Amino acid sequence: MQERPIVEDLLEDLSESSTEEADAILQSRFQENHYLFFRGVFDQKSVNAVRKEVFGRLHEVGEIKEPIEDGVFTGMSSRIEVPEGLGEFWRSVSQGPALRGLSHGDVAQQLVNRVLGVPSVAHDYLFLRPAVPGRSTHLHYDHPFFARGSSQIVTMWTAYGDIPVEEGPLLIVDQSQGFQDLLDLSLAVDYESNDTPLVQLMQDPVELAKSRNVKLKTANFRAGDVIIFSMTLLHGSLDNRSRRGRVRLSSDVRWQPASDPVDPRYVGENPPGTTGAGYGELNGAKPLTVDWHQR
Ligand SMILES: O=C(O)CCC(=O)C(=O)O
User: Fold this and answer.
1) pTM score, whole prediction
2) Which residues have CB under 6 Å of ligand 1?
């Protein structure tokens, strides 16, 4: 992770949950583990429609090769030239109908309703993440970003395509909901600030897991798999090490009880986002780069 090898015995598979299980069982497992991992929540056909939609837009700006659904990076980009600007381009990609049909659709909502045990609502603001080889996300808690409106927010992370371990899927630090020292730092972040909270843990994840005697958990994600996790579970991603330039595609969306106030930064057709820069502040809004060629 972050170009550091992870010793095999520190890595463990995420425990799988099933939508066939009773709500009470899912809820008590969520309370205990702070995550629930479900296989195949969305079908392959719907996921392919998302890939076609998103990668089709990236193909238009020269970033994705034919056949589009394979999601292979060309190593080039003309995205910087889009007349509407990068933020607006990314907003329109992030609001595509096939994508939203899954990320904010009935299936997603019903599942979160069951996990929370109350009717839920999603933030409109969506983090779409096409990750080229070489990319990874540092470990962090989501609490400093999203927990302003409600005490019961969860993140739903969805794999739009197969994401085997070598292509950089999500990774969680088991039992990190109990790392009180790190949680205290994360809970102390000033929510009224428009600054992006400085909450990434730059420490080597392997050292962290070893020193706290816990496992790093991930899976060979398949198209349509979903993980729902709490604001107080440390997570990041493995490096995308695809040898054929496959771009890893996922989204993460926050859901909360519908009866709680929603943080206005993440609501509407053109949400301001954490810093006020809207969709333009997201990593996804940056043209894909050739970093991976240099490794
Ligand atoms: O997909 C990733 O690389 C990171 C996702 C993440 O940080 C999140 O879902 O909160």
Assistant:
1) 0.94
2) 129, 137, 142, 155, 157, 170, 235, 237, 250, 252
